[in-house]
Amino acid sequence: MTVEQAAELFNTTPRFVRRLVAERRITVVRLGRHVRIPRSAVVDFVQAGTVLPLSTRRAVRHLTTVA
């Protein structure tokens, strides 16, 4: 997919996706001067940034240790 299509999936601007590419935080395929982003790279990037919620018991324990 193109940078614009990836930005649409992320619900961001193409500038954000270009920054991810420049910082090598997302996998890209370069075809001459064109950049294509595999759909699997988008899925991997989202999964890597996903934070799972704490269970209720762990959340209470975490809050008591912070306070």
Could you characterize what this model shows?
The chain is mainly alpha-helical. Helix content is 57%, strand content 9%. It has 4 helices and 2 strands. The mean pLDDT is 88.
Question: Would you kindly provide a brief summary of this structure?
Answer:
With 67 residues, the chain is mainly alpha-helical.
Largest sheet: 2 strands, antiparallel
Structural class: mainly alpha
Number of strands: 2
Neighbour order of strands in the largest sheet: 1-2
The H/E string reads: HHEEHH
> If helices are DSSP runs of H or I spanning 4 or more residues, what is the number of helices?
4
Write the layout of secondary structure elements.
Blueprint: H1 3-10, H2 14-22, E1 29-31, E2 34-36, H3 39-48, H4 56-66
Antiparallel strand pairs: 1-2
Helix pairs in contact: 1-2
Describe this protein with a few key phrases.
two-stranded antiparallel sheet, 57% helix, elongated, 9% strand, mainly alpha, 2 strands, 4 helices, 67 residues
